[in-house]
Amino acid sequence: MNKDFMQHAKFKRNIVQPDQAQQLIMPYVKLLETEHVALTEARGRFLAEPVLAPHPYPHFRRSGMDGYALRSEDTKGAATDKPVTLEVIDEIPAGSLPGVPLRPGTAARIMTGAKVPDEADAVVMLEMTEKLEQEGQTLFTLKREIEAGTNLTPIGRELQAQDLLLEAGRMISAGETSVLATFGYHQVLVRRRPRVAICSTGSELLRVEEPLQDGRIRNSNTYTLACQVQDAGGEPYILDSIADDLELAKQRVMKALEEYDIVITSGGVSVGDYDIMADLVQEGSVTMLFNKVAMRPGSVTTAAVYGDKLLFALSGNPGACFVGFELFARPAIRGMLGASDPYLPRLEAVLGEDYTKINNFTRFVRGSLEYKEGRVYVHPAKLDESGVMITIKDSDVLIVVPPTSTGFTAGQQVTAILLPKGI
Amino acid sequence: MNKDFMQHAKFKRNIVQPDQAQQLIMPYVKLLETEHVALTEARGRFLAEPVLAPHPYPHFRRSGMDGYALRSEDTKGAATDKPVTLEVIDEIPAGSLPGVPLRPGTAARIMTGAKVPDEADAVVMLEMTEKLEQEGQTLFTLKREIEAGTNLTPIGRELQAQDLLLEAGRMISAGETSVLATFGYHQVLVRRRPRVAICSTGSELLRVEEPLQDGRIRNSNTYTLACQVQDAGGEPYILDSIADDLELAKQRVMKALEEYDIVITSGGVSVGDYDIMADLVQEGSVTMLFNKVAMRPGSVTTAAVYGDKLLFALSGNPGACFVGFELFARPAIRGMLGASDPYLPRLEAVLGEDYTKINNFTRFVRGSLEYKEGRVYVHPAKLDESGVMITIKDSDVLIVVPPTSTGFTAGQQVTAILLPKGI
């Protein structure tokens, strides 16, 4: 190992701003191939093409009530003291078609969702009528006028044929599934999930199942990253963690870059005596995008490109690793999936407490959300150093604290990045 | 079929308020059995027991920097014009233990995350020192005093042994995974997922892959419900949809209640000529909890109990079916999982536009969220009748509109229920 180079390289990091760093990655994010999945397997996948309405919706004049389909003109003048009587000449359950045309003075018993006869222009609900049987005829009386269009959903009320139903790049959740099923899309074209290799480095790492040892810690970052990869829509592959053996680490990383779409390492990129990435860049094996970001935690975050693969070397500090993933690796995964917006949503919130820590870098502070009387507050976590692990679990947001020499006071407006939640 | 009974029963529904309906269900929600899952499979599962810290964290005095571990008293009086020189007698990579005790005037080269020697009480970062080689000795100079505790994370900084790490009933996401891995929980005790049978009723229903037919619609509710069940943490099982044959429907529902934890039907519960539920209740096969809720959409939502199984008969209208699931079935699923809060989160938001529809029932209006300058606004969907499907996909919230004879104006405060998002 060339220690002199390492010492040299590590002090020559070109620092970029966090948003610059995000922009440096995007040109290298390739759209992954498409594949068809069954609608029942499509939840959480991203549409690879826009979906259009093959027909209007509803595609027939639909009854909105259980009652009688009638011609509104037949109810003209109906009143409490002057009921109108109509003859029931048809019965139309949902899914059936009208059997006979309605003549003036006649109506059809109809169920919610059934097709309204062409001659009818309204449906009166059952509860507003009184049924009579008279000389073998079924009749009902009605004591008020019914307006044309009542309880009748016209063709195309929600959508016209060829209307855009769903944009490409949209994630499929319950609402999208409803649309797809309604229009007969039992197979959906989506992008395949990025295969993301995750690998921790550091000889201090114990496997999760190993007993504790003095001076060593368990490897938690790979498991956390695996969750984060799934939240983003990727498929995580946990590789064996590698000790601080530079040659071995390099070989492993290059092999992973051959086999996976994205490789994420954690640890080993700190300004220390061991630095895989600097060496890989020096050798020309990968092309560096950035190796230092003006942010806390995780300033020594590195991103590099190998062909159409991406390599992220995140800090080994749990807090910094978590933040580095959400800011840089997640957008890459979402970009490969063709997501219409690969970044986590941001919102303007009110700072719930003073934040007095000063910093000349942008700080991404773990925090919790609170809604109160129409306002949205964010509360910084009590412990948010890069090495702190315990506050990740209680964080709803990353509060974006710009460089400051004075800190911020409660009540000021700040930007917060909404962290992924849900399953 | 006893039409007279049906006609009778359907007008004799006992109406309950939505929150009463939720409370009527909860006593019948049983906690499901526990099972161990590997940490890598635990995402989205619910902890069945509280998790305690088996040891403090960190469990050794950890260096927060690459630099030198030293005795702060040795740096007393150090200044630019009066540098202190210390001898480096040890090198401690992360994961290794100190090799020799530090005597006064000596220090140890140390990496981020490594164990600080017992005799040292601070770490100075490498960049603040100047290295010298002199007569076979490695030395460094330092031009300022270092306070005790600098860059040194004490034992138990984040957690003490026996501290509560995670409460029972908590869902496992990235942050929880980080905690579990850190403390060696490679197997996690969770509750098994509820098995939820989903079944649409109605002879108007086409399978999703069938060509369109006049007067008939495709079965979209089962697919939407399957997504919603997964969002809630359950395992959906889509059963064949059943036509409006009362006997067949009853048999199918009872068989499903034997085999699954929860059965959800959609359609067939409207005030019409066909009503499975009323018949099952009348026969004593199931015990009714409620069969009408003072809400829109979905007033004809039914819940019933069969032993320790739950049956939900939701409206066949897509909008009403969606809302009915989120209000009633989701809390039952989350309750069976032992979730600490089975209900969707609520927030107070500002109504973004006038809402003029009047109603004597509480209305759950699909809406979108907007954050602006520290305030949170909700915008009601343009189309929100119970039969409307297309606006489900764009909804972030259900706006809770209480009974009103005047409507509500933009700027008023309203309660909104946050809908599940994410994968």
Automatic annotation (TrEMBL), chains A, B:
InterPro entries: MoaB/Mog-like_dom_sf (IPR036425), MoaB/Mog_dom (IPR001453), MoeA-like (IPR038987), MoeA_C_domain_IV (IPR005111), MoeA_C_domain_IV_sf (IPR036688), MoeA_linker/N (IPR005110), MoeA_linker/N_sf (IPR036135). Keywords: Magnesium, Metal-binding, Molybdenum, Molybdenum cofactor biosynthesis, Transferase. Its cofactor is Mg(2+). Pathway: Cofactor biosynthesis; molybdopterin biosynthesis. Its EC number is 2.10.1.1. It catalyses: adenylyl-molybdopterin + molybdate = Mo-molybdopterin + AMP + H(+). Residues 197-335 form the MoaB/Mog domain. Pfam families: MoCF_biosynth (PF00994), MoeA_C (PF03454), MoeA_N (PF03453). It comes from the Bacteria. Belongs to the MoeA family. Catalyzes the insertion of molybdate into adenylated molybdopterin with the concomitant release of AMP. This is Molybdopterin molybdenumtransferase. It comes from Paenibacillus physcomitrellae.
